[in-house]
Amino acid sequence: MPNFDAEKAIAAARAVAEVRDDMLVGLGTGTTAAYAVKSLSDRVRLGLKITAVATSKMTETLARRLGVPLIPFRGLSYVDLTIDGADEINNQFQAIKGGGGALLREKVIAAASARVIVIVDSSKLVPQLGRFPLPVEVVPFATEFVRARLTDLGAHVVLRSIGGAPFLTDQSNHVLDAAFGEIPRLAEVAAAIGAIPGVVEHGLFLDEIDTVVIARRDAVEVRQRDSLTYR
């Protein structure tokens, strides 16, 4: 049985090796991205000079605790390199993200980045997206309306909750987890969801990812969007 935590750690370390002095680094959200923050903090302690922006308050808290220098994203329009995780990713560099509830900020910072590296353990690589429910961030006013429209698209939809109350994103929005099963026409589904009034963002990342770092046991594979693969 693979040790997925160990895989996350070595994938994170490999991605963080790409960071150079004077970079502005985007920090993702979630258990895998947390390993990247820890690995980056180790390099900062050894003298790496960078600044970072966080995709969530959770990541911001972790980065500050570990001594990673942060600046707010507001006022910025460009990030050199973002390192993040994914809930699922296929061989076409398309992913479902948002399990940590930070999909809006993650997508904004990914769009602002010159390069996006996604780090995953061996369980996250799938032939077709959809096994993991697709997170959809919605304004609370439109939650039930959007839920109905997602159901019309064929999803089983659940309002994400915590402690019996709706989960709130850092923007105080709700998250609907839409279980479609395998999604054969990703671009069509993304467009249909994006066209629903009240949807703030969805967790389909179809064009943002440049590099995928996959850990399998004690080995790491790096895949580039240009199809170059190396170890």
Q: Would you kindly provide a brief summary of this structure?
A:
Helix 1 (4-16) packs across helix 2. The chain is globular.
Classify the beta-strand content into a percent band. Answer: 25-35%
What's the pLDDT, averaged over the residues? 95
Number of helical elements: 6
The level-1 CATH class of the largest domain: Alpha Beta
List the helices and strands in order.
HEHEHEEEHEEHEEEEHEEEEE
> How many strands appear in the DSSP assignment?
16
Structural class: alpha/beta
Shape descriptor: globular
What does this structure look like?
The protein is of the alpha/beta class and about 230 residues long. The chain folds into two domains: about 150 residues, Rossmann fold, CATH 3.40.50; about 70 residues, Alpha-Beta Plaits. It is built from six helices and 16 strands. The strands form four sheets. The chain has a seven-stranded mixed beta sheet. A four-stranded antiparallel beta sheet has the order 8-11-7-12. α2 links the parallel β1 and β2. α1 packs across α2. The longest helix is centred in the first third of the chain and has 15 residues. The chain is globular, with a radius of gyration of 17 Å. The chain starts with a helix and ends with a strand. The model has no long low-confidence stretch (mean pLDDT about 95).
How is the topology of this model organized?
Blueprint: H1 4-16, E1 24-27, H2 31-45, E2 51-54, H3 57-65, E3 79-84, E4 88-89, E5 95-96, H4 103-112, E6 113-121, E7 134-138, H5 143-152, E8 156-159, E9 161-162, E10 165-166, E11 174-179, H6 186-194, E12 199-202, E13 204-205, E14 211-216, E15 219-224, E16 229-230
Parallel strand pairs: 1-2, 1-3, 3-6, 6-14
Antiparallel strand pairs: 4-5, 5-13, 7-11, 7-12, 8-11, 9-10, 14-15, 15-16
Helix pairs in contact: 1-2
